[in-house]
Amino acid sequence: MSQNPDLTIRRANPEDAGLLSELGAHTFFETFAADNSPEDLAAYLCASFNPAQQTTELNDPASTFFIAEVGGLAAGYAQLHAGEPAAGVEGPKPIELVRLYVSREWLGRGVGEALMRACVDGARQVGYETIWLGVWERNGRAQAFYRKWNFCAVGEHVFHLGSDPQRDILMERAL
Asked: Are 118 and 78 in contact, with CB atoms under 8 Å apart?
């Protein structure tokens, strides 16, 4: 379980759009800046983590966000989205884990685990039976984390980072 007694997980609300814009851009940049062109990264960050986009996603009834806080400060977040699964996802009643990001200073300290537990429990509570995700083929740390949670590779798809089409591995697990 959590390695930090000050760690809490809460559901995000529409007032969290600014926080998710900053936290999303920060964690995405930390995770992927070293392996991508500045232009492609900037284009993706601008399109995906602006306050208007985050407001739209927060107001989407098919999306659920969880925010991890340590001592009241945001340390990471996760997003689930109900919708059509990618080709290759075969489990019944699937929901997508769209994002699970933790600030670098909190990696390895139970934040990711707590967020994943919130996603698994939250999806089960509303009747989903499968959780799936796409993870960049070059993100070995994330792949190892998902395998630890019993996710298995079931296919692949293309993820566009700016103008760069990248290969994501599709993974799923039963809930």
From this structure: yes
User: What does the pLDDT look like over 119-136, one tens digit per residue?
Assistant: 999 999 999 999 999 999
Is the distance from CB of 81 to CB of 95 less than 8 angstroms? yes
Give the residue extent of every domain in the chain: 7-174
What is the spatial distance between Cα 150 and Cα 116, in angstroms, rounded to a whole number? 12
Report residue 4's pLDDT band, with 50, 70 and 90 as the boundaries: low
Structural fold of domain 7-174? Aminopeptidase (3.40.630)
Q: What is the pTM of this model?
A: 0.93
- Could you report the per-residue pLDDT of 21-38, keeping only the tens digit for each? 999 999 999 999 999 999
